[in-house]
Amino acid sequence: MFRFRKTLDIVTLFHKPSSPASVRAATILKQVSANATESATEDQASDHSHQTHPLRSRQEFELNITEDPPTTDQLRTILEYVGKQNIGSVINGATTENEALKKFRESAENFKRPVIVDWNNGKAVASDKESEILKMLEQTNGKE
Known about the structure:
Elements: E1 9-14, H1 20-40, E2 61-66, H2 72-82, H3 97-106, E3 115-118, E4 123-125, H4 130-138
């Protein structure tokens, strides 16, 4: 029987390999992605591991790790996702969207990393804290 496969959500990590925080975020995302892929192949009816293993409670997704800075349009979207109160967590010294865009145009180095973006679900987090990353990824549970 032929089935259409659901397109995978895309999660992007804006990564800086020389940053220990960014390396931690990459490790967490790789673990979650691997566990989501593994559990997607199991019989879902008999799999109760989501109750005991939080890293497996996320739907399968496509992980994109890039060292490139975001485009200006991507940055606008990221700023929208994190909210006005968290703009400074994405762009050094910025408190407004216009200020953030100006500082980013001055230097892409003003963009703080790691930043993780779930494009399909409109979520972003600028952190290497496992709890914040997992919370963002798990907020889509139950979405088909």
